[in-house]
């Protein structure tokens, strides 16, 4: 009798294991490892994947038969099944949760298409693109030879990073192996796809994006699973793509929060790819303009080697960076420290516009006035109905009026009464991109002003020529020929955040914007409205993200924060958390921090709290196992109140 071991699509922690089913004689020829089936489970028909076929079972008693063969297509490859199991174990989740992220829903029409023949391997790429990096040629050679090279690549300012990443893929393809590249969002993916069309053989690469039509996404997924395409370019969910004979995994801008999966088990794309490289023995590249503390740890541990340009190449490529605090500048403009746009910024912008170049203005927030506070006591203004934050939208209301409204429930706040001091007037605590564009339009009459952001629409590119481009972080368009200058405003809104990663994230946003500016030799200048003595500003002025990442890692190690430790966040009602902690058996040396009140999310009711559980990195697997065990016990008991468990959260405060 043929036995099928099936992972059923039931997201209950105590059922997180394969179940044995008998394969009926009429299905023997069609059932194979990795295919989709339907089985009867707990009295219901549920979906599942066959992870293994066997001749014997340890089950005592009669096995239930498979109810239906949904498709013979082996969409769950052994490599992806092993990765999904490892991810579930490392982050305290369930295998079915990971597989739901890894495998797109089936579309029968796509499976009827015959598999295409993969194109022949191309010639290795021209190494000239990596000539400015001392170890660049060695990395390309290792990929072509199939060696598991690991690198943390810090891209030079103005680098054509999509072309460089595709050259890494081409080198891997030339050795007959596959490659996987993950980027934060669709704009980055569009640039990567354009570079792949120019540098890779036709049909060798597919793009997996979250916003693709279901038919197109599944069709491309099948091209990868069948081995027709050996290069995958995608966003977060593509980390599980079933690339055949995987030789390279790479991620761009690993500090971007879009790489953090918001669904269980909440694994970060960078960590999944690093784990996948470890499991498969393939090469890995963690690439960005800046550098995270996690990337610094990979270098410190020796798991990866640094790929960066030398100082001569850096000086030739980087713009000139000005920061507030220089004695000469303070003598010229005593209010430079407090002005939102000091005279230095005005002067640099005027020079760039006069030279016929666009000017990039980065502001931390979109909208018009996204943050309001009481004019008397400066307390944040909140909605009287749901306690959400009040703000003013980017687009005026009827009659051109701008009425404050709740950013959660959209209820207008025609009147305001501060619960702390009874004040009735509001002031702007945060100025958004739209209002900044209005102010700059008045300050630079005659200059065209464009806005790029979530509320007004994200621009991909802007033409050459004098213009002011106001953008929020991550929405900066690429300028033809580069920007003549960049103004980085409202630094306090980034550096002053109550966030463990505030400094690291601020430098990442600044460097991503500044890297779009022309080199200093071509007149490129950057003005950052922040104190020159701040370590983050110093890292930007010297263009030395590695120094700040090492400093961040050292500080977090001293304080016992990730990535020097493993940490779990437990969120829920006080009663549910108390029950959870009473059943939790922590590894030796683990700390429990809290509880602290948790800000309710829209749609949540009742009091919520959060605990943090911290342990040494060497005990991370034990912590994940202990958390999963408690989740299993609670699901078996059918406990109604859910506790949200998240390992290695990106936000700790």
UniProtKB/TrEMBL annotation:
Q: Which UniProt keywords apply?
A: ATP-binding, DNA replication, DNA-binding, Helicase, Hydrolase, Metal-binding, Nucleotide-binding, Primosome, Zinc
Which superkingdom?
A: Bacteria
One annotated Gene Ontology cellular component of this protein: primosome complex
Q: Does the keyword Metal-binding apply?
A: yes
Give the Gene Ontology MF terms in alphabetical order. 3'-5' DNA helicase activity; ATP binding; DNA binding; zinc ion binding
Which ranges carry the Primosomal protein N' 3' DNA-binding domain?
5-104
Where along this sequence does the record place binding of Zn(2+) 1?
374, 377, 418, 421
What are the BP-aspect GO terms?
DNA recombination; DNA replication initiation; DNA replication, synthesis of primer; double-strand break repair
Enumerate the cofactors the protein uses: Zn(2+)
Q: Which residues bind Zn(2+) 2?
A: 383, 386, 406, 409
- Metal-binding as a keyword of this entry, yes or no, is yes
What does the UniProt cofactor note say? Binds 2 zinc ions per subunit.
Looking up InterPro entries in the UniProt record yields: P-loop_NTPase (IPR027417), PriA (IPR005259), PriA_3primeBD (IPR041222), PriA_3primeBD_sf (IPR042115)
Any coiled-coil regions, as ranges? none
**Function as written in the Swiss-Prot or TrEMBL entry:** Initiates the restart of stalled replication forks, which reloads the replicative helicase on sites other than the origin of replication. Recognizes and binds to abandoned replication forks and remodels them to uncover a helicase loading site. Promotes assembly of the primosome at these replication forks.
What's the subunit arrangement here? Component of the replication restart primosome.
Which family does the record assign?
Answer: Belongs to the helicase family. PriA subfamily.
Identification of the protein by name: Probable replication restart protein PriA
Gene assigned in the entry: priA
